[in-house]
Amino acid sequence: MKKEIPLVVRRALEELLEVRETEIIPFKTDNIVLRLKEVDLSSSFFFDIEEISVKSNKTFYKISYSPFNHENLETGRATVNSVDLKKRLGVWLDFLDAYNKNSLLFDDDQISRQYSEEIGPLFEIIDEDADKAPFSTKQQKVLSNLYDDIIIAVLDSSNSESEFLYAKTIAEEMEISKAAIPRLTKKKNIERLRKHFVKIKKFGVSVFEKTLVKYFSDIGNRLLNGDIDLNNFLP
């Protein structure tokens, strides 16, 4: 995809995303030049570059995006040059970062944070290049297969329609993370995996135990920082 997107757009995105907390996934379809979405599947926010045109030797970008601003969740539309495109992208990313901050009133991040801290030692990588390098091809394959196994286990553990809908959300988010494995550093990949396990623990104790053992045996015990006794983290 990288050779299908104008270089000025790629550079603007890479520069803006380098200092952001929110993780963005790019998509390209026949109808639009580029769509940016959060990894969070529950989010309806997006930024589209719908069309690129040239008039009098000047390039213009037809864009649409949501949220429009901090007061309005509707879709905004405009035709801009490359300078204004970068500005609007930056503002849109600012909105996403603001929306993703913890909220004591509107989310259960206190529980998620406690679970994340509890299982944190199982997701600490000893590799010195973890912040910079991707996993090897063999490691990527192991991680991809692990995602497949966990997705099946989560979906098979739902016993009601509401549980299945929650499990389906977890599975869809894990599919996105699996597809992103080659593009992420080792640390980013494992951080994503930890977030998925937090949601799995909120989903159910038995499936959490089953999938955590699978993670530990397949990949965790090869990457952990120090000697870890898995029994300390099981229910």
Kindly describe this structure.
The protein folds into two domains: 2-99; 109-233, no CATH class. It has seven helices and five strands. It has helices spanning 7-17, 82-99, 109-119, 137-156, 161-180, 186-203, 205-223, and strands at 24-27, 34-38, 46-55, 58-66, 76-80. The protein has a five-stranded antiparallel beta sheet with strand order 1-2-3-4-5, covered by helices on one side. The longest helix has 20 residues, at 137-156. The N and C termini lie far apart (44 Å). The model has no long low-confidence stretch (mean pLDDT 82).
Write the layout of secondary structure elements.
Blueprint: H1 7-17, E1 24-27, E2 34-38, E3 46-55, E4 58-66, E5 76-80, H2 82-99, H3 109-119, H4 137-156, H5 161-180, H6 186-203, H7 205-223
Antiparallel strand pairs: 1-2, 2-3, 3-4, 4-5
What count of structural domains?
2
Q: What is the N-to-C order of secondary-structure elements (H for helix, E for strand)?
A: HEEEEEHHHHHH
Number of helical elements: 7
The number of distinct β-strands equals 5
Short description:
By secondary structure, this protein is an alpha+beta fold.
Keywords summarizing the entry:
single chain, about 240 residues, alpha+beta, 2 domains, 5-stranded antiparallel β-sheet, 7 helices, 5 strands, about 50% helix, globular
